[in-house]
Amino acid sequence: MPENIGVSRRELLVGGAAAVALGPSLADAAVTRRSKRGRAMRFAHLTDVHVQPERAAGEGMAACLRHAQEQKDAPDFIVFGGDNVMNVDGEEGKQYASVQLDLWHSVLKAECSLPYACAVGNHDVFGNHPVDGKKWAVDAYALPDRCYTIDRAGWRFIFLDSTFPIGDSYTAKLDDGQFEWLAAVLQQSKAETPICVVSHIPILSVSAYLCIEETPKVDWQIPGSWAHIDAHRIKDLFKKHPNVKLCLSGHMHMVDSMEYLGVTYACSGAVSGNWWKGSYHEFDPKYALVDLYKDGSFDIEMVSYGWTPKA
Ligand SMILES: [Zn+2]
To answer: Is 0.85 topped by the overall pTM?
Structure first.
């Protein structure tokens, strides 16, 4: 685990416990410490909301948004990590897709007062169609494109489109056009501008090893739909650009963090937990608070918002 994340989680535990006993002064001290360290921004990473009319998912999404925005040290930006709606990639058709999307927009309108950006998840690709289905997602979430950049507080965010549909299914990789676009974006980015990459599916993931229910008999079997099968060429590209600091993902509904060649790859669990049925593996419904610092360092704090499944 990279030291900065380890420190952050320890601080959080100590600060959180002490704040309950001693009042808000330690929490205030943590904010002061972050600003002294040169914090550029704090954002919330809400991934895998999977909003749907069933299982009170709209109420859950609202509760999560309120929880994040009511933090004492509140974020000023929200990143939705994809799979924002339950699923429009199956055969249910346009009507069910519209019901989910309408709910998404109504909860956002009522509960989100912050600027936000979205990544496209596999379940956001209408009909799992590589062109028209992705256009649906771009239009649905009013995105500049299926992959795009945002510059904010001295950092550059690069949103990637991980889903590569194949027949009725998909694998996780960047098509050649998108890879070339990413290479060009990195080439054109100033070396002193730290970069946070957001993909729905992890580029690299520890969770992909432990998501299977049974211990493997001989070999690990990790599906290409769980982590990018083009991780080799992506890490080779990142190696040429040491300002790539952090790659955030969702999709696994699990929480992990690993560092490889100077880049931290972190998965932020799921707002929906086990698709609104409680916890998935060891992870209850969660979101991440991410502090980005001017020097390219960062902290990630995982936050449970206390949602329990409704009938
Ligand atoms: Zn997904």
So the answer is: yes
